[in-house]
Amino acid sequence: MTQKKAWLATTDKEYQKLGLKRGSIQQFEDGLRTTGAKGEFEWWYYDAKMADGSTLVVTFFSNNATDGSGGFHPSIKIELTKPDGTEVKDRVYFDSGEASFDTKRCNVQLGQNFFRGDLHRYHIYIKTAKIEAEIRLTGNVSPWRSETGHIYFGEEKYFAWLPAVPEGVTEARVTVAGTTTSYHGTGYHDHNWGNAPMMAVLHHWYWGRAKIGPYTVISCYLTSTKKYGYTHLPIFMIAKGGEVVCDNGNKVAFEQIQPTLSQVTKKHYHQQLVYDYQGQEGHYRITYKVQDLLASFSLLEDEGQKPALLQQLMVKLMGLDPTYDRFDGPARLEKIENGKVVESYTNQATWELMYFKKDQDV
User: What is the pTM of this model?
Assistant: First the structure.
């Protein structure tokens, strides 16, 4: 029997089926894209690298990406990491009756919390027992997706990704323990959804984004599960002055250097990642180097609680072990002409490793 494969949807027929336009992002693409059917998941994500070195990450979930049981089980997760490593994080869960999702645009309401925007300007508000944040984000780079943004696994299962704000100016007022701090920096927003539990179709991925000199970089390297041939799916974009310079993932060579074992997840991550792009638009090389491990945890755990016995058994019998690592460190962009580096910029960046299966080199 022919083994099923994974691919990025790029044909005219696939664009038509999805109701999408080449080179043009529509408002509804950042609205609710799922129905609550079994196996579906969806989230709206924001992160920021602030001028003082702090990082702020916010995610609004329609349901848990590792659940797949169907229906809406919304939640919010917020994480503030200060330059000295101090963390404030919280996750709040809501009943489906406390949630509303707009299908025409980004307008998510969970209790008094909201995530709203129009593909250019966004307003986010979160208030939990630990932290309150009001956030503004204005895009410097136009909304972008790699082709249709839909990766198919077989004929029906898919994972979709829309970087609605690849890079923008952000401001935030954050209150912790009665003290309010104002931040400003560079921010990012993307939207993800799909119709199959990610653990069933994806083995792991590296994802990162960075503002490096005059350039904005989005880089992702996904690997499918064995069922779909351990297919490697690079997604890559460089923009300059708000305009995309290059975005063909098929022209990217990906290198992982110096594997290191996480003491928390017991998975290997790499001290350096190199994305080397060579196309008619030019030769660019992006190098991420780990400086700090910002987060490292099992996705089966709920705010520090150990997985239930049934979940532990699932890990053993099915080879499932969903974990997450987030990194911080310098990212270097080099433009190369005739074998020589003609431009070089370095700036701090944040990237992640989402790993759904047991530790394996594939």
Answer: 0.90
